[in-house]
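Question: I have long wanted to understand how a fold can be written as tokens. Here is the record:
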Amino acid sequence: KTYVGRGLVGRIAERKVEEGRRRRLEAAAAFKAEQTRLITPERALAQHEAACKLMLEVNLRLAGYHRVDHKWRKRRVRES
């Protein structure tokens, strides 16, 4: 809610509103700068995790495992 008045009280209220607006703009700019700074490390971490997951899957498949219902199971050796 904005106070609309005249004289000294009106000027004080206007100054308070402007200070609040300036603080919110500064906080928004700081938040955006922090988000921009964190995007690169988060993306690198996501790529690293994907690479680790892929390497784990490759090693398990080479060791004779397969996926059943999102779980790794050792393949049974079938005799012919």
Remarks:
- The CA atoms of residues 58 and 66 lie 10 Å apart.
- Strands lie at 65-68, 71-74.
- The longest helix spans residues 7-62.
